[in-house]
Amino acid sequence: MVAQNPLFRGGWTMRKFNATVINDIWPETAFFTLIATMVAIITEKKIHNLAVNNGLLTVLGTVLGLVISFRTSSAYERYQEGRKMWTNISIASRNIAQIIWIHVPVDRTDKDKNKMTTVQSIIEKKSMINLVQGFSVAVKHFLRGEAGVYYEDLYPLICLLPRYANAVGPKTDADMLPLWAASEDDQHPLHTAKPPPPSRSNTSDPLRTAVPSVIDDDHKSEKSWFRSMTGRRQPSRANSMDPEKALATIQSHRPLKPAQNPPPVTIYDYFPFLRIFSIFTKCCRRERKNVRRDALGRKIKPSFTESNVPLEITIYLNSYLAYLLRNGWLQPALATGLMNNVASLQDTLSNLDRIGNTPLPFAYQAHLRMSLWLYLLLLPFQVVSALHYLTIPGTAFASFLLLGFLEIGQEIENPFNYDENDLDLDNFCLAIQRELHEVTAHTMPDPATFVFTSWNQPFAPADRRNAEELTANAAEEYKHTDHVDAEPGMATIRRTLLKSWRDVDRITREQ
């Protein structure tokens, strides 16, 4: 998505035209313009009169315009709905983080009389908030058809989750939980992972034998692995965001893929008519492993994955809620709010899945495009008698206009990929990350430490004394200095508040 105009952002390159539909429609526009040129020359040179009656031109053009307008509007509704769903994720994530961080107590003892230290409580709450952040990142990869959890912006947030169903005894692939089983492959099996260095906190925990440790050198080697596997350099982020900079550097038993992995742009994206030659050269070239193309060489948009990582994360959040309720650490009203917000995340995930997995029926798209082609093909024959040589630019403009709107509708109906006009999912995830870190930066101070200070003038503008002056003599009731003969107490406070209302009403209405 384009928070800024992509044509005027950064340097001028050919890739800027990916933000428009010019590179998609110019071959068709050129074809219909060529037809109009031949019709105009043959007719005007008196070789043969190709003009036909234009009685159906207005009727068919109006109907076709309405259908194309409906097509574009329905696609834009899906685009807007996708944006609303991401707003819901942001709101629910903030709510969950605030409930966990503020309302779950720090000093607590479970039902077995085991007391948790302050550090343990803070680590537990911060880790669960990191899972909330991981949900939005997992949704981003899920919508882009990127399977698994081994990404530089996702893995550090959820690598703490257990990998096996059995906490004790030998662990095999049959015991691996669905979150990890769906992400594994034969090339990098989990049982070959190097265990982390022992520490006082995890020496006796068998589940931690596969948990990674923090090693910068391995993180660098993962970048080299990406280049060797894909045949290209990882996208440079010197002038763009780097989602991994604010995350932990984690050593994994397999290389981590980059947070952003858009398919490379080829010559076929600028000259679509050359795709016909890709049929003959397909057997002679080596396909890149991260790019899927059809028989004509066009990029295939990724399908949704079977590994539903966001759903697995919400299951752990619900398990944490059950854990808090079992130990009596959360009030029922707050537990209801936490449960409703987790349910909101699940509901939003289903709606996003619906938007991405429900394209316009193929029959509708095919019939609309064929009707438009027939209309543009016959257009020069109907207008040549009235426009003469102006038939050529007129047909070019009409084809550019109608084909452009049709292509725009097709491009934005699934707004979750890497196109310039798609929603900026990476920035949405970074915004959620900033908000969650702002929540955990809150120190939960006692209101008395900041309310009764010289920085607070609670009764302004009627009474501009600060709270420290108003409470300097605790034995005296409140009395406004302008009302010497007034009785101190609540009646004077109400009179002061009424005066504040009159002053504010008068000041704010003055022009």
Automatic annotation (TrEMBL):
One of its GO terms (cellular component) is plasma membrane. The chain crosses the membrane at residues 21-43, 55-76, 372-390. The keyword Transmembrane helix applies. It holds the Pfam family Bestrophin_2. It is found in: Cell membrane. Residues 187-244 are annotated as: Disordered. Keywords: Cell membrane, Ion transport, Membrane, Transmembrane, Transmembrane helix, Transport. GO terms for molecular function: chloride channel activity. It is a multi-pass membrane protein. It comes from the Eukaryota. Residues 216-225 have a biased composition (Basic and acidic residues). This is Uncharacterized protein. It comes from Mycena venus.
